[in-house]
Fold:
Amino acid sequence: MPPGRGRGWGGGGGGRGHGQGRGPRPRRIRRLLEPALLHLLRAGPLHGYALVGGLEELGLEAYPADLSGIYRVLRDLEEMGAVVSAWDEATSGGPPRRVYELTPMGREYLSEWVHDLRATADMLSRFLAAYDQGGPETESS
Structure:
């Protein structure tokens, strides 16, 4: 299933880069948590808090998602077969934690995401270059 056609695409949030009354969100790419979490799981199984730390390392610490939102994305990825999870009962010093692991389908899905993100980056680069070169100015009425 290519990115943009999965669960939740286009739902909620008011569309056109606007949140519910919060105005534009530059630097937010809708659903970026999916490929970011899949990328982090490429290195091996991780639990939720380790994934949060990995998101911070990717520069997504200000990305609008709380821990419950991250777990919702993980649950959706698990439902579609991109990740599997299991309780890690061997963890010392605390209760068992759910550990997530990338599946072969998840690797393929991540590859599709990367292809789409590269195309988006190219489109954004062209847009920004055109913007930086200037363009027709319009007058306000």
Remarks:
- The domain at 29-125 is CATH 1.10.10.10 (Arc Repressor Mutant, subunit A).
- Strands lie at 18-19, 23-24, 46-47, 83-88, 97-102.
- The mean pLDDT is 80.
